[in-house]
Design brief:
The protein is mostly helical. It contains eleven helices and no strands. Among the domains are: 69 residues, no CATH class; 76 residues. The C terminus is likely disordered. Keywords: Coiled coil.
Length: 265
């Protein structure tokens, strides 16, 4: 009896020792799993913060990432977390929005809260891209610059003033900006040429009119001289000579001005 009890105690002690060893292994494995879980959670939070902080236009932060990069990272995050349904993707993407973008996409937050239909993922992404274009200062400056460059300015200085204000924030390369300046300068030169041509035509008409006055004035003076006394005729002839002299001087002056004007243009 005593021997059996002793043997049973030995077996139980062995079992207890085995259970203790198994428990230690389980504790170590649990600690390892906890550490891995914490690491995964930290990576998840870091990546989530990275996705949220990459687009300055949406989150009021300075960043070199553009919308395409931000959106690509968002898709990776959604795929990593197995969000495939349109509604789930919209819900998760909308949760990432802050600042101006959150206000712009507020209607989706309201629909999600009230369990309304939110439409398709494609529709959501199109509106999200529109939010980026609307809120991004760089895109706003580009659109303002494009509109400014479509206007035909009479003075290049007027074009340059606003161009200088929009260009640095537009994101266009120096080459693109130079092309825009050349296009405006070409348009400006064409406008000046048209204005100049009309002015030259007016001057030529004025000179032609003066020449007609030169040829017609003596004939009208002779006709009038026949109807007057000799004294009046002498005075009329003197006046005619003076008028013809003045007309010749004005024609010469206008010709010289026209030559100088064409030379300057």
């Amino acid at each position: 009896m005593a021997v059996e009890t002793r043997d049973q105690l030995k077996v139980e002690r062995a079992q207890i020792s085995t259970l203790s060893a198994d428990m230690e292994r389980l504790i170590k494995a649990n600690n390892t799993l906890m550490a891995e879980a914490q690491a995964i959670r930290k990576d998840f939070e870091d990546y989530k913060d990275e996705v949220k902080g990459q687009m300055d236009a949406l989150y009021r932060r300075k960043s070199s990432e553009n919308f395409e990069t931000w959106f690509t990272n968002l898709l990776i995050w959604l795929d990593y977390n197995h969000f495939t349904d349109d509604k789930d993707k919209i819900q998760q993407a909308n949760a990432h929005l802050e600042g101006g973008a959150a206000l712009y996409m507020k209607e989706y937050a309201i629909k999600l809260t009230s369990e309304q239909d939110v439409g398709t993922w494609a529709e959501y992404t199109r509106k999200l891209e529109m939010a980026h274009k609307t809120l991004d200062p760089k895109c706003t400056a580009q659109s303002m610059l494009d509109v400014h460059c479509t206007i035909h300015h009479k003075m290049m200085i007027a074009f340059a003033e606003n161009f200088r204000a929009y260009a640095p924030k537009s994101g266009y390369s120096d080459k693109d900006l130079i092309v825009k300046i050349r296009e405006q300068r070409s348009t400006h030169i064409q406008t000046v040429i048209l204005d100049t041509s009309s002015q030259i035509a007016a001057l030529e008409q004025a000179i032609a009119a003066l020449r007609e006055m030169k040829t017609s004035t003596p004939m009208s003076s002779i006709g009038k001289g026949k109807e007057k006394v000799k004294k009046d005729d002498v005075a009329s002839n003197a006046s005619t000579a003076s008028t013809a002299k003045d007309t010749n001087a004005r024609i010469i002056e206008m010709d010289e001005f026209l030559e100088d004007f064409q030379y300057e243009v």
